[in-house]
Structure formats: structure tokens, C-alpha cells
Amino acid sequence: MTQEHPLEPIRRQITELDRALLQLLARRRELSLEVARTKADVTKPVRDAERESALLTRLVAEGRALGLDGQYVSRLFHVIIEDSVLRQQAWFQAQHNADAPAQTRVAFLGARGSYSHLACQSYFERRDLALQELGQPSFDAIISTVEQGKADYGILPVENTSSGSINEVFDLLQHTHLQIVGETTESIPHCVLLPAGTEMAEVTQIFAHSQVHTQCSRYLATLNKPQTYCASSAEAMERAASTPNSAALGSERGGALYGLKVYQREIANQPINETRFLIVARKGVEVPPQVPAKTTLLMATGQKPGALVEALQVLRDNGINMTKLESRPIHGNPWEEMFYLDVAANVQHDRMQLALRQLTRLTRFIKVLGCYPSETILPTELDSQALAADPRLSDQPALHSRKHKPVGTEIPLGHQSLGGGNFLIMAGPADGPPGDLSLCARTLKEYGGAALWGGWHSRDAALDPLFELGTELNLPVIVSLEEPAQAQEYAHGDLWLLPPERMNQTKWLATAGASQHPVILCRQPGASLDALLKAAEQILDGGNQQVILCEPGRLEGELPVLDLAAVAWLKQHSHLPVLVAPQLPGDGGNMAMPLLQAARSAGADGALLSLDSSLGVDQLPTLMSQFYR
Ligand SMILES: O=C(O)C(=O)C[C@]1(C(=O)O)C=C[C@@H](O)C=C1
To answer: Which parts of the sequence belong to the Prephenate dehydratase domain (predicted)?
Structure first.
């Protein structure tokens, strides 16, 4: 008889626990609906911030007593509460609109597995409605299918966190009589997908939608494989499934429909990649008082100066919060604009009715495109004290703080020292030809650069030349930590870098904490400075005292944004060295110098420069010689 592996009985216990967790979650959902039924009688709003805050504070404390950290518990319960709120809202909406279409035929863009298809499934699943799915070839076809009564609903993407507004959809909304009846936001984690049995080394082409390709350009540069563009991600996945030696970019859920498995997750340039969709129907809906509503308006103001400001003032005077403003040209009227506004208000409320009446006086055209339940559920924030570590330790200053260590930490870097008073420049080519790496390394060496950087994503293939150059020139190298399980592959790097999207990921922080390499920890966009320091604390707590904080820049359109107040604040509150990683616009060569000088004045200890079309390797010698002059 074969003996059972010792793993098996443990795994059986985990399976049992997971099953019990699922049953508890299902029961919690039932109770949440019971709460909704009770609230219906007293017209209490779905969301009760006080209750959520009390509930989370208690759970964090109880979790801590069981050895679970506060961030972990609050993250889990944010997901659970979001589901509870959305389900309650969907229930109220259904009660209030009993004459909604009996069937649910939904028109969406693309085939099974497209991002629109997945959004459609999540939206209607919450409503417990059986779906008849009608994939369409274009946005136009979605609108006309619903207009002609061949579908009951249409689902249209309107904006994406990486690529911005989808203009074609806004233009179509101008001309249809369909009403917006709902919205949903889908988080779309792009992955590289492979057919079962295919290895990445065998792949000769990657199928992708052009927008997805743009959103993942940094990672794709490291794979260095030819791309074939497709009309949709669904088509990309279908072609990869039927073409030998190919891969596709798509979502994990979509890939599963085509028998594709994930090769690499989270490959988007921006860690948060969400798309907002609108649901349209022939007849509008009414939003019940328990549910927060959004109203979308379409309006054209007169062409006199300040007309838009006057219109917006009407909203402000009536206490109405605008959540989005978008402008589109009016066909046939050059230089005139049509404005789309989302406001957080129910069109039935008096103040909204009043505002609409006042707006008719100031506009040439105004139309309500729809009033629908808002599905933007912001998590209830707990104060940092509630989330802090064990209260018995709360009188001990945090390891990152100046109270714990008044003198700044210095980290040796070759013959220089980070945090030692000199501003150090570290650089590397973003995704240029391999020759750039060598040129960059030699330039850094010659002009006093402190380290060679392998870019935001250091993939296996790119590591060897990096390490070889480092050894040859005796120049420290920085590698991005991609996969904690393979930490040994990064062992030759002198410094490790945790990219912004890893800042909150416990397994990366634990790997960094257990390492003896200095670790550069980058602030995630939108994360608070407190959150950055908490992540640093986890690394320090793990044992690694060589943590370097990094403030990455970003681009707002063509404008470079770099938070130097954050740099100054971090230097005052923490003894850890602080770097900046500015992003430069297309013609960024001229911006590099003033940004570096300003960062140095704000107290930064150095900069990480990503060399690309905005700042080329060839511009590095002038920049460095002038900076250190
Ligand atoms: O207790 C309530 O009032 C609920 O609606 C339940 C619940 C929850 O899921 O715990 C959901 C939404 C509220 O904001 C607070 C709590």
C-alpha cells in the first residue's frame, strides 16, 4: 500500500476550513439581505458608516488577539462589506422597479471572456438574474440591438484607469434615447496566458488587443516576443488557444474559458487597472431612497466666457457634488463642446430638480441621460490607531521613526553611501536595446553614478547582463523583486527594489524583511505616507534594517508630478534614506535637472532615473556632469 504523504492530512483540514468559511460567507449574505428588508420599512440608507467602523475596529482587535494583523483583517472585511452593500443596493433597486424587463438579454462588446463579458456577468450575478448573453461586434451594434428591442440591456465601457475615457461611447450616448440604468467598475488584472503544455521559451508570438498591449508595455518589453494585434482580448485568447507556440494577453477568468493558464499575473504598467461600465436600457429606473444615486447629465452651454463655470456654480449652490466632467466636440458645430457630468444626487430630489431648472436658463441644451445606483463603494477607513500593531507595543516608537533612531541611516553603496549627505544618482534603461545597458553602466561609472538599475521589472533574461556589467565595472546593481519564491535568483543584485504595486503585498514585504540586501520600497500611487511607513515597518520588523524609501513621480497628461513635500516629510519623520524616481514627459531632458535639484533641496538622498525616450542614455553625461558641478 502506498503511504500517504504527510502533506495530505493537513491539506484535507485546510479544505474543510475553506468549505466552512464559504458556508459562513453565504450565511452572512443571507443576513445582509434580511437587514435590507428591515431597512426597507424604515427607509434607512444601506450604508451605515458608524456600524461599519465599529464592526471593523472590533474585528481588527479580535483578529489581533488571534495573531492576525490589522491590515489583513480590514482588507478581508472591506471585500465582504462591499459585496454586502452592493447586494443590498441591488435588492432595493429590484423592489423599487418591479416593472423592469422580465428577461435579461444583455448586449456587450466581443465574445465570451471579453472584459465587457466579465463585467456583465458580475453586474447581473448580483441581481440573481439568468442571463442571455449577446456578444456584439461594436459599440454601435450594442446601442442599436437595445434600441430595436432585441436586447434588454447594453453594457458599455466608459473609462479606464490607464487609458482614460472611451470617447466613442460618449459620442454614441449623445445620439441615443436609451437611458443609463446602472454602472459597475471591474478590476481587470491583465495576465500573460499560455495554452496548456506550452512553455514561454517556445512562444513565437503574443496575441493582444492594442490597448491592453499599451497598458502592459513595460512588462512586454522584458519578454521581447513579437506581438500580433487583435480586435479584442477574447479574439486574442481564442487565437492563442488554436495557434501552436503562441500566448495571449487577457484575464485569468477569461483565459479559463479558452483553456489557457496563467504564465504571469499583474503585468499592467499601472498597478490599479479598473474599467467603469455603464448599463443602458430603453426605459430609465428610479433609485430608491436607501440607495446612493448618481445622475449623468448631457449639456451644451452658450459660447460666452465663463458659461461652464456659471453652470457648475448652480450645482455647488445646491450642494450637489460633481464626480466627473467630460467634454466632447459637437458634430457639425466646430469648436463647440458637449459636456457630460456625473453628479452624486438622485434626480427625484428637490435640490436636483431645482438645479436642473436653474441650468435650463444657462444652457443651450440639457438632458438627463439617467439616474442610477452608484456602485462606487469606498472602503470605510479605520483610524491608524485602530490598525496599529499590538497595543502593548504602542508606547514603543516605531522602528522607522526618528524617535527610535535620531541619526539618519546610512547604507553603503560601493565606495559611496546612501543617506551619507551626498545626493546619489542611479539609473538604467527602461526598455531600450541591450546595448543601452552597457553604455549606461559605463557612463554611470565615468560620471560618478552610484548604481546601475535593471528597471521597474527585472526579468530573468535581463538579470545576467546586469550582474555581469556590475561585476566587470565594480558598480552596484539594483534589481526589482518580481517573485518572492525565487528570491535566490536576485541574490547577485546589491540592492532590491519593491515596485509601487508591491508596497502592500505581505509576501513581498516578508521576503524583503528576511533578506540581507538593502531594499528600496516605493510608495504606491494613492497610498498615504503613513501606509508607506507601515510597509517599511513590516520589513524592519522582519529583521532587515536597510530600508530605503522611494517617492515615485507620475505624469498628469504631459505634466510631471513629483511630491517633494512627501520627501521632506519622510526625512523629518523617519531616519531611513529617501529616493525619488521622477517620471519625465516626452521631451523630458530639460526637466530632469530642475527636478533633481529640487529633490536634493527637499532632502532626498538620491534619484532613480529610468532612461527612455524622454531622457536618453546619451543625455546622461551632460546631466550628471552639470548636476555634480
Ligand atoms: O448592519 C447593517 O446595517 C448592514 O447593512 C450590514 C452591513 C454589513 O455587511 O456588515 C452592510 C452595510 C452597512 O454599511 C453596515 C453593515
So the answer is: 105-282
User: DSSP H helical segments within 282-431, as ranges?
Assistant: 307-317, 350-362, 384-387
pLDDT in tens, 69-91: 888 999 999 999 999 999 999 99
Opening angle at CA 23, ends 20 and 27, nearest 5: 140
Q: How far is the CA of 321 from the centre of ligand 1 (A)?
A: 24
pLDDT per position as a tens digit, 25-56: 999 999 999 999 988 777 788 999 889 999 99
Evaluate whether 329 touches 359 at the Cβ level (below 8 Å): no
List the domains of the chain with CATH numbers: 15-96 (1.20.59.10), 191-264 (3.40.190.10), 292-369 (3.30.70.260), 395-627 (3.20.20.70)
In this structure, the residue with its CA closest to atom 16 of ligand 1 is: 52
Regarding an ipTM greater than 0.90, the answer is yes
Determine the atom of ligand 1 nearest the C-alpha atom of 32: 6
Average pLDDT, the chain: 89
Report the DSSP beta bridge partners of residue 580.
551, 607
Choose among 450, 454, 438, 451: nearest CA to 610.
Answer: 454
SS percent in the chain: helix, strand, coil, step 5: 40, 25, 35
